[in-house]
Design a protein that fits this description.
Blueprint: H1 7-20, E1 28-31, H2 35-51, E2 56-59, H3 62-70, H4 78-81, E3 86-89, E4 93-94, E5 100-101, H5 108-116, E6 121-126, E7 139-143, H6 148-160, E8 168-171, E9 173-174, E10 177-178, E11 186-191, H7 198-205, E12 211-214, E13 216-217, E14 223-227, E15 233-237, E16 254-256
Parallel strand pairs: 1-2, 1-3, 3-6, 6-14, 15-16
Antiparallel strand pairs: 4-5, 5-13, 7-11, 7-12, 8-11, 9-10, 14-15
């Protein structure tokens, strides 16, 4: 008996399906991690089987790699693939300047490395991830296990002088144990409520010894594919200068960021 998808799952699937049509044979593609990326991998696998789509993909986590293999998608490491044509990934939040919070799936380090080794980054999300200001979603920070207490103390001091509205730090746990990433690190989730200057915060965090990477993705994404609960999807393109007034709507469900 088939299960009727939830409205959110319908939105995620719509975004993933739209994104999968942007992949052509011969491409080298980064595959993200998380619930929306899971829909993408399944859509891509269907194209590989039904159309004979010939692509090489680099997964950003062991979970994505396992699913991609099950779907019959050819995989490579980033070193084997070299520079990528495209990375498609989800996000936990995105703001009007296409700054992102990522890392709910615990793969932010590999996700950021793969995204920065790509010509383009397309983000697939449902409408609930669109915010005016980042920070309502906890910001993940990947840290070494060694000296994690000292790293946390330094992190508290650093947050106090940032333009944020909160400062609670929670080690991420799973099944009563500290969550461990694919690289053997741990994650501290920062409950900041509002991030006034994402770029400054990202720079400040990565100056702290013990912090491996943070979940702020600044200036990496150029396209958002927004899935709707009715099963439709809208493509939002970044304007040439995100600081200027945005352009107008374009035809075919595509518009520039900020268009009315």
């Amino acid at each position: 008996m088939s299960t009727v998808p939830s409205p959110i799952d319908s939105a995620k699937h719509a975004a993933a399906e739209r994104a999968s049509t942007l992949i052509a044979s011969g491409m080298k593609v980064g595959l993200g991690t998380g619930s929306t990326a899971t829909f993408l991998v399944k859509c891509l696998g269907e194209r590989v089987r039904s159309e004979g789509l010939d692509v090489v993909c680099v997964p950003t986590s062991s979970a994505t790699a396992t699913l991609a293999r099950e779907e019959g998608i050819r995989l490579a490491t980033l070193d084997e693939a070299g520079w990528l044509d495209l990375t498609i990934d989800g996000a936990d939040e995105f703001d009007p300047d296409f700054n992102l919070i990522k890392g709910a799936g615990g793969a932010l380090l590999q996700e950021k490395i793969v995204a920065t080794a790509s010509d383009r980054m397309i983000v697939i999300v449902d409408a609930s991830k669109q915010v005016k200001t980042l920070g309502a979603f906890p910001l993940p920070v990947e840290v070494l296990g060694f000296g994690m207490g000292a790293t946390k103390a330094l992190l508290k001091k650093a947050i106090k002088i940032q333009d944020v509205d909160g400062g609670r730090i929670e080690p991420r746990c799973r099944n009563g144990e500290l969550f461990t990433t694919d690289e053997g690190n741990h994650i501290l989730d920062l409950h900041l409520n509002r991030i006034g200057n994402a770029r400054d915060l990202a720079l400040a965090l990565n100056q702290i010894p013990g912090i491996v990477e943070n979940g702020l993705f600044i200036g990496m994404c150029d396209t958002i594919i927004l899935g709707n609960v009715d099963g439709t999807a809208e493509t939002i393109m970044a304007s040439n200068d995100m600081s200027e007034t945005r352009g107008s709507k374009c035809a075919g469900g595509v518009r520039l960021a900020g268009a009315e």
